[in-house]
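Class prep. Write one:
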Amino acid sequence: MAMTAFAGNSLLCRLALRQTSIDAASFTLIRIVSGAVALWLIVRMRGRSPEKAGSWVSAAALFAYAAGFSFAYLSLPAGTGALLLFGAVQATMIIWALRRGERLSMRQRTGLALALTGLVALVFPGLSAPPLGGSILMFGAGIAWGVYSLRGKKAGDPASATAGNFLRAVPMAAVLSLAFLPWARIDRAGIGYAIVSGAIASGVGYAIWYTALPSLRAASAASVQLIVPVLAAAGGILFLGETITLRFLFASIAVLGGIALVVIERERNIGTGKEPPPS
C-alpha cells in the first residue's frame, strides 16, 4: 500500500507540473499542508497530540525530499528522475545498513543486482544526458528520503510521528513558497492534484510506510522501494493512456523477483534461528 502511494505521488506530480500551470513551490506547499491537516485530524481523533511527536530533523528530511522532487521534475524526464531518485535511496539506505553491520548473503546481492538491472532496463531506452541541476535535485531528494526512512525505523507511533513531521515541515515549505512568490502560479486542477498528493498519497501513505519500517532491515526497506518506478509505469499505462510493452513486463518481473530474493532470504534466516527478529 505504501509503495502504491509513492507511485501515486510520482503520477500526481507529473500531471500537476506538466499538464497544469501550478509551480513547483506552490505544489510543494499545498502538498505538505494537505498532508499535515489530514494526519492531524487522524491523530486527534485517536486522542493523541501530533505536535509532540516527530522531530525537526525528520521534518527537514521530509521537506528536502518533497521540494527536491517537485523542482527536479520540472526538467527531468520521468524515467530519468525515477532512476536517480531510487538509486539514491538505495545507496543511502544500504550504505547505512553496511555501516551498522548488516551483511547481505549472495542470494540477496543477486536479488539487488536483478532488481537494479530491471529498473535500468525499464528506463534506459528513454535516457539521455539529463540536466545537471535537475539531476542534483533529484539525487538530493533520494538521499533525503533515505534519511527519512531510516529515522522512521525508531519513530514510535507511525501516524503521530508522520503528523508531527508534516506539521514541522509546513513553515519550511511556506518559506520556500514565499521565496518563489514572484513566479507563483496556481489553478484549480493543480491545487486538486497537490491536495490528493498531500492528504492521501503522502500523509496516509507515509504513515503506512512508518508502520512497516520497524519490521524491515534497512537493506530490505531500500530494495522494496525499487518497485515504485514499476508501479508508476503501470499507472501511466492505466491512467495516462501509455501502451504496455514487453520491456515493461520483463523489467517488472526482474524488479519484483529481485525484491523477493532480498526479503524472502531474511525471512528464511529468521525462521531458522540464524538471525534474530528486529527489535
Remarks:
- Confidence is low (pLDDT under 50) at residues 275-279.
- Residues 85 and 139 are 5 Å apart (CA to CA).
